[in-house]
Design brief:
The protein is mostly helical. The protein has a domain at about 5-215: Orthogonal Bundle (ABC transporter involved in vitamin B12 uptake, BtuC). Helices cover about 80% and strands about 0% of the residues.
Length: about 300
């Protein structure tokens, strides 16, 4: 059955458009984390999103007495705590001798530990609407509703608009941090905005994909796109395209094959795109390098033969 025929099914439409939205936004904004060599930051964000979402759930149920599963509330909580985790990791690296990768690992374990504690408290407590809250660990794309999709579209669009509005600042901070400061841009302000957009790109997919796999949506498309292009606009555009296409194909395969979770199939599809890019992309691919080396060796042998004959 073709993907167009599947579009008649409501659940498939929600899964397809929901995951493609997640892949597009995460692919575009993940490019900046990749270029800043902070790809692990998406892992920090996704793990910190768990306590953020759970705190928002508890606040809504216990304090406000409203529906704790509201997508907007959960995203707001995840964005606040996720951004806090990122800023904490960068603050530790900036004010101590601890490297950024170590600081991110520390932040990841602290916030994820807090999330697991909150998950246990909610599971053991009498909280209204707590059923299925564990889906944030591994995701469940089949539970995406129209409201969830609408929220993801609106929040994802907001993140992309912020990226475009502060494109110059993000690009300068990514490639030449000192020059960015000299021009009068506050480093912490730019970092906060940039990481906030990356947080948004990550947390909108936690419900559908799960925090365990969401890191692949932020890292793999930029890594694949980098093999094909040398410019930032080209990389961001291609990364977003890879993220959307890979997510769409993975969602389709999960329906066709039946009984296979959507998230893992999307991750494998994105990995396949990365492998093809690594092998076949012009100028940077493994095949191109092997061919170039063979040509260089052949040319060198020819020159040595000609020199020997001339003597």
């Amino acid at each position: 059955m073709s993907p167009l025929e599947f579009l008649d099914d409501h659940t498939y439409r929600m899964v397809l458009f929901g995951t493609m939205t997640i892949g597009l936004v995460a692919g575009a904004l993940g490019s900046f984390a990749y270029l800043r060599k902070q790809s692990l930051i998406s892992d920090v964000i996704s793990h910190a999103a768990l306590p953020g979402a759970l705190l928002a759930f508890l606040a809504a149920v216990v304090v406000l007495g409203t529906n704790g599963r509201n997508m907007i509330g959960l995203i707001v909580g995840a964005v606040i705590i996720g951004t806090t985790a990122v800023l904490f990791a960068n603050w530790v690296a900036r004010t101590s001798k601890i490297r950024i990768d170590t600081a991110m690992a520390v932040a990841l374990t602290i916030f994820f530990g807090a999330g697991m504690l909150l998950l246990r408290i909610i599971a053991n407590g009498a909280f209204r609407g707590k059923g299925g809250i564990q889906d944030y660990l591994f995701g469940n794309a089949s539970v995406i509703t129209v409201a969830d999709l609408t929220t993801s579209l609106v929040v994802g669009t907001l993140a992309l608009v912020l990226m475009l509005a502060f494109w110059k600042e993000f690009a300068l901070r990514t490639f030449d941090a000192q020059h960015c400061t000299v021009l009068g841009f506050r480093a912490r302000t730019v970092d906060t905005l940039m990481f906030a957009t990356i947080v948004i790109a990550t947390v909108i997919g936690v419900k559908a994909v799960g925090l365990v796999l969401m890191v692949a949506f932020v890292v793999t498309p930029p890594a694949a796109a980098r093999q094909w292009t040398r410019t930032l606009p080209g990389m961001v555009t291609l990364s977003a395209t890879f993220g959307a296409i890979g997510s769409g194909i993975g969602a389709y395969l999960s329906i066709v094959l039946g009984g296979i979770p959507t998230g893992p199939l999307i991750v494998l599809t994105l990995f396949s795109i990365f492998v093809v890019s690594l092998l076949a992309a012009p100028r940077r691919s493994i095949i191109t390098r092997v061919v170039a080396r063979r040509r260089a060796r052949t040319a060198l042998k020819r020159e040595l033969i000609l020199e020997g004959a001339a003597r």
